[in-house]
Amino acid sequence: MTGTLEPYNINYFFTLIGIITSISAFYLFFTTIQRINDEMVLYKRKVLWSGSVGVGLAFWISNLSISLSIIDIMPADKIITHFVAVFTGSTLIVFFVLKAGINQFVRPLEYFLSGLFISIGLLLVLIAGIIILFSKDIVFMPLFFVITFLTTTGYAYSAFRFVLQLARESSNTVIGKWKAHGSTIMGITFSITPYLAFFSFLKSELITDLEPANAFLILLGLELAAVWLLNFMPDWFGESKRLEQTARLQENQQHYGSLFENNPDAVFSLNQSGFFTSVNKVVTKMTGYSEEELKKMSFFPLLGNDVRKKALYYFEKALKGRMDTYELAIVKKDDDPLYLLVSLMPITINEEVTGVYGIAKDITQSKKTENMIHYLAYHDELTGLPNRRYFVKRVRAHIKKHKNKTFAVLLLDFDRFKKINDIFGHAFGDKVIEAIAIRLKESIPEDSVVSRIGGDEFTVFIPSLPSVEYINTISQQLIAVFHKPLQIEKQECLLTTSIGVSVYPEHGESTDELLKNADIAMYHVKDHGTNNYCIYKPEMNNNTLDKIIMENDLKRAIDTREVIVYYQPKFDTKKNILIGFEALARWNHPELGLISPCEFIPIAEETGLIIELEKLVLEQACEQMKQWHEQGASSLLIAVNLSQRHFYQEDVLCRINGILEKSKLEARFLEIEITESMAMFNEKATITKLNDLRDRGIQISIDDFGTGYSSLSYLGKLPINRLKIDKSFILDICTNRKNEAIVKLMISMADHLSLSILAEGVESKEQIDLLQELGCIEVQGYYYCQPVPAEEAAKFLKADSVV
Q1: What is the pTM of this model?
Q2: What are the backbone dihedrals phi and psi of residue 274, each rounded to the nearest 5 degrees, phi first?
Q3: Vertex 395 angle, CA 389 and 400, to 5°
Q4: Which residues does UniProt call coiled coil (predicted)?
Q5: Closest C-alpha to 579, from 797, 792, 291
Q6: Distance CA 601, CA 584 (A)
Q7: Higher pLDDT, 574 or 161
Q8: Better pLDDT: 709 or 675
Q9: Of 602, 598, 687, whose CA–CA distance to 647 is shortest?
Q10: Terminal CA-CA length for the chain
Q11: Checking DSSP bridges between strand 577-589 and strand 324-331, what pairing results, if any?
């Protein structure tokens, strides 16, 4: 088609598209207002502009669809020009209305001018679109235009009023309901308006075969009906809100009445003169006065002379707008005293205090409660034993009363309890503590007192001390008592105890000093094998001080990365190639130099620093191996040891995953080493964790194999890749036929279980040759290299010595 437009009836498909797009545009418009007014939404300006652009684009699509409904062909250049004009105009109008919606409250003049601006802007956009698309078929119809302008103006004011009302609403449920209704009516109205504009500016035969006036009246009727609905929507919305608020008010009144009447405490209100204006049933029951009697009296007759001044002070304080709570004694109608805990609150109406609300709780029985509180203050909640506060008070009282009498303090700490608590959880640990407490109470002398002073630490106060041998006897008995396992949840739990002993006044003249020295003696026992007792000696102070210093230095060393990683290479003796490294922690102390792992690893395990230490080793080892891979050693594995405490942490897999992701090392090149005893501990949990690691692609090896107590059937269940023969079997393998036979059996077992096997501690060529003969070709040890820093380990990364 060229030249002028040909007569064409309305294509209702495009009309439907225009209506749906228009409804969607208004829904997006209301959603944008809702987001802008949401206090949780940041970058409101960005939301404002993106919403304006989105709604403007939808309005352009709607306008274009309506235009396409009366024309069969649309040239591309006109569509582009139409887009620029209509989209820009629509976006600016939407931006203006959104800004007004943010303000929510506008003055009458602002409302009038805003509505006029919206109606004129909307008509200008429609006229611009008509001129662009139908420039050769323009026929101005003044009457139709005036009617269209008035109708559009009514539509604009009604729509703007509804927008402002909805913008003030805070309930998302209410907004969701009304924005759906509003979007539908406004979208339909907006879709009819272009047709009215067509009749005002185009030949009627382009639109319909009907008489122009008849067709226009039909559209005008539809438009007016929609505008009428839209005009009344704010009223309906307001009425709905009013009904909702009325229902909420009634509900609140019912809640207040329920709270007032059903409150277990006495609830009352007083006027400014102190007379009762309302009381609940509890007040009448407490005082003995009826409701009618109370409403004729003030609170003064209920008070004795000794408390009137106090009660008046708090009453006047409440009248000044301040809330407070205080204890008060009143006299009931039968002259019995009643002790109350009273809270007074001001009644504020229109920012003026008109009276006082009061809530009174009967505390007459509080003396009984005080006894219970006293008990709880001096007893351990879990075990019922006396606590640290009781122990200190009892010993101090004994010293004050018997200054020259010798007595002993025993401090017990249970070995391995922290591991059990970490692995099985605190609930299981609590049950272990309860069982320990029962066994201790049954085992101490009658005149002695056992207390739980925290965690798994207990004290035994022995007030009568005939001789030193008596201490030895009691300590040995307590150690022997725990040789028998505890029964916890059908599981046997074997614990041993380390006991430190201090004697008054030889080892201290105060409770704190006695406890401190008993603690030093107890740690001396732990440092020399546990499951024993020791009486304090002054020279132990130096060892304890050194240990405390070492603990503090180790924490700092981990934080400052004084702990570094050394690497010991592993070799395939058959191919004579390097296959990987084992990462080992070394502490380069700034004053003491290189500290042996034998010194700081036990401290790390005891204090819990082992988790952070092993995390540091993992991070450094994975980062270093990634660097070596990038240098060409792309097949090497890095092995890292995990302690039992770390292995059974719930987030251990997440921690390892995080380290692998950060270092970008593939999981298949990481090998986690656990000990044989760890593998045997808590079978179900161990296998679950190992499977999680294997599923991630991480390899698993059993370190120090042969030194534990694993069974062959259990070993077959473990999802592992490699066994590492402990160096104690390798040391004299060439001269000890029994060790040779044991190693041969281990190699054969690994072969039948389809596991790799590696020998640790290789120190001679003869050992390598014998291991090769027995079938073990993977080795590590001082024969090749002791653990060295990364710079020295790199010398093994030669092209001809790396897989």
Answers
A1: 0.46
A2: 90, 10
A3: 125
A4: none
A5: 797
A6: 11
A7: 574
A8: 675
A9: 687
A10: 76
A11: unpaired
CATH superfamily of 263-364: PAS domain (3.30.450.20)
User: Tokens 């090749």, residue?
Assistant: 784
Class of domain 552-728+786-796: alpha beta
The token pair at 618 is 């993992």
Q: How far is CA 66 from CA 12, 113, 182, 190, 514, in A?
A: 9, 29, 21, 11, 95
Round to whole Å and give the CA distance between 161 and 173. Answer: 20
Tens digit of pLDDT for each residue in 47-86? 778 877 887 887 888 777 877 777 766 777 788 888 888 8
Overall average pLDDT of the 597-603 stretch: 85
Residue 582 pairs in a beta bridge with 568, 639
What angle (nearest 5°) sits at the alpha carbon of residue 519, between those of residues 514 and 523? 150
Residue 204 corresponds to which tokens in the numbers above? Answer: 């009627």
* CB atoms closer than 10 angstroms to residue 461: 22
Q: What is the CATH number of domain 378-538?
A: 3.30.70.270
User: What is the predicted pLDDT for the residue at 23?
Assistant: 81
pLDDT at 40: 55
| pLDDT band, residue 6 (cuts 50/70/90) | very low
Rounded to whole angstroms, the Cα distance separating 510 from 502 reads 11
Convert the pLDDT of each residue in 296-319 to its tens digit: 898 888 988 888 899 999 999 999
**Mean pLDDT score across all residues of the chain:** 83
Residues, the chain: 803
C-alpha span between 517 and 5 (Å, rounded): 107
Q: Residue 138 pLDDT > 60, yes or no?
A: yes
Give, in order, the Cα–Cα distances in Å from 27 to each of 14, 117, 185: 20, 22, 11
Q: Where does the pLDDT of residue 153 fall: very low under 50, low under 70, confident under 90, or very high at 90 and above? A: confident
- Can you give the residue ranges of every domain in the chain? 12-242, 263-364, 378-538, 552-728+786-796
* Burial zone of 378 (CB within 10 Å; 0-12 exposed, 13-18 middle, 19+ buried): middle
Half-sphere exposure of 35 (CA within 13 A, CB side): 18
What is the token pair recorded at 64?
């274009």
What 3-state DSSP class applies to 757? strand
- Per DSSP, the residues of 502-570 read EEETTT-SSHHHHHHHHHHHHHHHHHTTSS-EEE--TTHHHHHHHHHHHHHHHHHHHHHT-EEEEEEEE
